[in-house]
């Protein structure tokens, strides 16, 4: 079975294209690498783009882009996806830097764009703004957690790293503890998008950058029990939650456990179902504000 091995980009529709471009370039510190009419492509660095902003009638995440191993045969991969009863479309040049992709939809309606090769933009990190290392993960509210977990596990090859009770799954497609999060909700929609920062001092500096523009945190700083990352959360101009994090657990697949950290509770730390919901959410104390998970 060929599995995706990393997330490369997320695609957003926005009714406020210029406002979102300004936020992601001037505050978050991404580079605008290309703009084609009503579509903008922005990069943290390395990849041609980490974020696609597309002018539209509503603010929502409409697609995720995942890379396949370099030895993968994309035609065979399409047959593999179709074997699950899914309708696929093979697209030429679906995104700048990507020549060939297999496109299909997950059960909640998010478009999944998979590809083998992508040409990097060759841009440096920004010298202003927060300037994150990379796109880390995307979290969604879903009405059928088990069903969507099964899709990401059986179709895309993700693994479950941890569960919070029976309502919140943390899934990975590479060494990072989670790449996609799925939490039970009344409606299916994106909950937040997360970018990795360097360390705790980078989190501090990010708070100062946000404060300069009077952008308040909605939660944090926190130390999550699940994943053990230090995180802050705020909202962008479209009202979507952005997480900035560092020190996320790394999974050693050969050992079946996480790389050891002083913040761990178990030695070795392995994936499990966390029943202490408060501690799983924030080892440092305060839980999320009311309505945060919705």
UniProtKB/TrEMBL annotation:
Keywords: Aromatic hydrocarbons catabolism, Dioxygenase, Iron, Metal-binding, Oxidoreductase
Official protein name in the record: Glyoxalase/Bleomycin resistance protein
Pfam families in alphabetical order: Glyoxalase
Record-level Gene Ontology MF annotations: dioxygenase activity; ferrous iron binding
Stated family: Belongs to the extradiol ring-cleavage dioxygenase family.
Domain VOC as annotated: residue spans: 6-117, 134-247
Cofactors: Fe(2+)
Annotated SUPFAM superfamilies: Glyoxalase/Bleomycin resistance protein/Dihydroxybiphenyl dioxygenase
InterPro entries recorded: Glyas_Bleomycin-R_OHBP_Dase, Glyas_Fos-R_dOase_dom, GlyoxalaseI/FosfomycinResist, VOC_core, Xdiol_ring_cleave_dOase_1/2
């Amino acid at each position: 079975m060929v599995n995706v091995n990393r997330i490369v980009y997320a695609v957003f529709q926005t009714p406020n294209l210029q406002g979102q471009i300004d936020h992601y370039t001037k505050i978050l510190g991404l580079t605008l690498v290309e703009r084609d009419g009503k579509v903008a492509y922005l990069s943290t660095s390395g990849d041609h783009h980490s974020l696609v902003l597309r002018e539209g009638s509503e603010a929502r995440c409409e697609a995720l882009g995942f890379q396949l191993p370099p030895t993968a045969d994309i035609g065979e991969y399409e047959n593999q996806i179709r074997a699950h009863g899914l309708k696929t479309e093979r697209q030429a040049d679906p995104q700048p830097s990507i020549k060939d992709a297999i496109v299909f939809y997950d059960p909640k309606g998010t478009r999944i764009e998979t590809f083998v090769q992508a040409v990097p933009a060759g841009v440096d990190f920004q010298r202003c703004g927060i300037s994150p290392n990379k796109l880390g993960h995307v979290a969604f509210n879903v009405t059928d957690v088990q069903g969507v977990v099964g899709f990401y596990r059986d179709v895309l090859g993700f693994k479950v790293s941890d569960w919070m009770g029976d309502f919140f799954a943390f899934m990975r497609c590479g060494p990072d503890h989670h790449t996609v999060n799925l939490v039970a909700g009344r409606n299916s929609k994106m909950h937040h998008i997360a970018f990795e920062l360097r360390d705790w001092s980078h989190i501090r500096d990010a708070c100062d950058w946000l404060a300069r523009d009077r952008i308040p945190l909605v939660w944090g700083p926190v130390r999550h029990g699940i994943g053990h990352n230090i995180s802050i959360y705020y909202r962008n101009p479209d009202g979507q939650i952005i997480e900035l994090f560092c020190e996320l657990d790394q999974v050693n697949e050969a050992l079946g456990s996480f790389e050891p950290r002083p913040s761990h509770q178990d030695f070795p730390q392995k994936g499990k179902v966390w029943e202490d919901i408060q501690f799983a959410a924030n080892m440092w104390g305060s839980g999320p504000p009311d309505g945060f998970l919705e």
